[in-house]
Amino acid sequence: MTDLSAVRAALKSQRIETPSWAYGNSGTRFKVFRQEGVPRDPYEKLDDAAQVHAATGVAPVVALHIPWDRVDDYAALRAHAEERGLTLGAINSNVFQDDDYKLGSVTNPDPAVRRKALGHLLDCVDIMDATGSRDLKLWFSDGTNYPGQDDIAARQDRLAEALEAVYRRLGDDQRMLLEYKLFEPAFYTTDVPDWGTSYAHCLKLGPKAQVVVDTGHHAPGTNIEFIVAFLLREAKLGGFDFNSRFYADDDLMVGAADPFQLFRIMHEVVRGGGLRPETGVAFMLDQCHNIEAKIPAIIRSVMNVQEATAKALLVDAGALAAAQSAGDVLEANAVLMDAYNTDVRPLLASVREELGLHPDPMAAYRASGWQQQITTGRVGGEQAGWGA
What we know:
By secondary structure, the protein is of the alpha/beta class. It is about 45% helix and about 10% strand. Strand 4, helix 3 (about 75-85) and strand 5 (about 85-90) form a beta-alpha-beta unit. Helix 2 packs across helix 13 and helix 4 (about 110-130) runs parallel beside helix 5 (about 150-170). The longest helix is centred in the first third of the chain and has 21 residues, at about 110-130.
């Protein structure tokens, strides 16, 4: 029997990190679509993030991306966040948009380019010191397009050398989260293509290096929940980048393509203790909203994670264990499906009311008038975006 009071407590304490770049303009590889009211600087991004937190009650952390969110005074940016009930989360590095990185960043055959990339990563740690951020999130677009273009093993050596230098720079309470991606933009080899490559580097580095699982970065049919269970068991799951994909890209709202997969992932998180704060697992969205309104899309994404979490918390762990021990395949599956098929929206509405919130975050945002305020107020200047 599931303890509903424990379920409610877990839902109230859940924390979901939103990405600063999701509040800016984005698009496809062919076109960036502009929307009215989009933030013009990191401060306005935080203002929008505060609206997401006000509506949901579980999104008080905002990840930054450097240089997209570069400011002259990070202490002032941190204060701006705190005044709005927010904290600054992961610092995401960017070593993929400069012309110098055409052949790679930290794995580039040119030592000068590698030094430039490493310098940026170390600068990001300096920013973490100023923002109070715990996590440095690393994603490398490095790879090759043709057989023979570069030495595959040598590129791994260069990657390891750079990661070790960054690891040494981390403070006692800081971590390095190494992301992976099956392909894109390299066509032949990707230097960090999968969780195993990330795990191998993190294992060698030490306890402050952990793997981040982007839910859109796998081959079709990959059992992502197995990866989650394995990394939790090894205490190497640093966090998630939640999103969805239908084919190859990964910037859709989490739970849009396969809500059952999101439930299965969250079931392994719950079963493995990943919701406990001491495990340090970061639950972050990594999405770019191209055709949908920015803030409502982020609110809906947060709600999707909440719903999957609630269903995972409702799994009758005792009944599931008993069925598994008895080898009762159908009953074990039925226990999971009973939880997944539960309509958790009334439960979450009740939890929100207990937190003093509107039971419907989307309705709360519409009623706030914020969208009208930013549409009329944010005129002039240059809208934020990811620069394509």
